[in-house]
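User: Here's a protein and a ligand (pyridoxal-5'-phosphate). What would the complex look like?
Assistant: Let me lay out the input and then the predicted complex.
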Amino acid sequence: MKSMRKEVEARKGYFGTFGGSYVPEQLQPRLDELEAALSSAMGDDLFAMEFTRLLKEYVGRPSALTYCENISRNYGGGRFFLKREDLNHTGAHKINNTIGQALLAKRMGKKELIAETGAGMHGTATATVAALMGMKCTIYMGAVDVQRQAPNVLRMKALGAEVVSVKHGQQTLKEAVDAALEAYVMNPDTFYLLGSAVGPHPFPTMVRGFQRVIGGEAREQFLAREGKLPDHVVACVGGGSNAIGIFSAFLDDANVKIIGVEPAGRGLETKEHAATLMKGKPGIIHGFRTYVLTEDDGEPSPVYSISAGLDYPGVGPEHAHLMESGRASYVSVTDDEAVDAFQVLCRSEGIIPALESSHAVAHALKMLPALSKEETVLVNLSGRGDKDLDSVLPLLGLE
Ligand SMILES: Cc1ncc(COP(=O)(O)O)c(C=O)c1O
């Protein structure tokens, strides 16, 4: 597996046949400049030291590994653990990547960050690092998401960012990425701080690099506590950054089963889902080759999930490769199952999860009863759910 991954990475920006860079001519020099800056930063110990310092002193890393005793007991079967990215400053894994990329932007002499956001967690994390590093910040967000993730819009504004509400198409994450990419092409002085392990090379590799701290810590913490690795590692997959962040530390451990959870929305039998790996096919979106949900005319399909951070018609290219190579498996969870899991985690463990993360929790809850007492499941709890209370509480009759 190790040698296979090395070979994959040797083909610049490709994971098997996925990834690469399929962009307009005028954008490629910008990506080449980014790749050169990234490679120079990666060879610089001072860059790594500053990244690590900020993760510790500003983000509050390492994030906890939590054993969920009540759920493990109530569900019978296996034992259930959470990697607590919800405890990070700003409340999600997104901050790890924004710190890394903002340091890179600073090193490149850029003065303005632009970003897309769906759930608003990446937008908030970008606005946060822009304030920290004294940069201008513009966030593109679909108008539907501006409504359903209102608390995060207020946070971004408080932090000094301009939030541009994108009002075309479905007015969700895909359109936010379209608008941010367009602004990036138009303005050479900006740095596009992409929020997931998607986009043309070098973004997927760079984002994984900044998020792999999740898996690195989780592996060490699990070994220290349990004296062995987890049997199952589970994470939700939107673009795939929290998932690849935790998966990357376990890919070479053949005994660890790796499971990504996609949003089945109102059901895979309807068109109202965003389960790209399960229902899509290979194609190109936003400048890279991956699985894509498409219409008959080849255009990206309208997608839907209750969770604003998961409704994207593409997926990170490394996940497409991990699925095709058989190293990871991908499943899906409906809106209703995610909302139920949200409530179970609140009521059983006193932890309010993001709706995105609730998808991963829901799949783990389905698995637990069938496992033996010795088996363990580790879920990446990618974020906290304060932002989702307005949409979830009415569904639970708790308005
Ligand atoms: C808390 C949380 N988890 C997961 C995601 C999905 O993104 P990714 O698949 O890149 O981790 C988001 C996206 O906004 C998020 O806010």
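Summary: The two ends are 50 Å apart (CA to CA).
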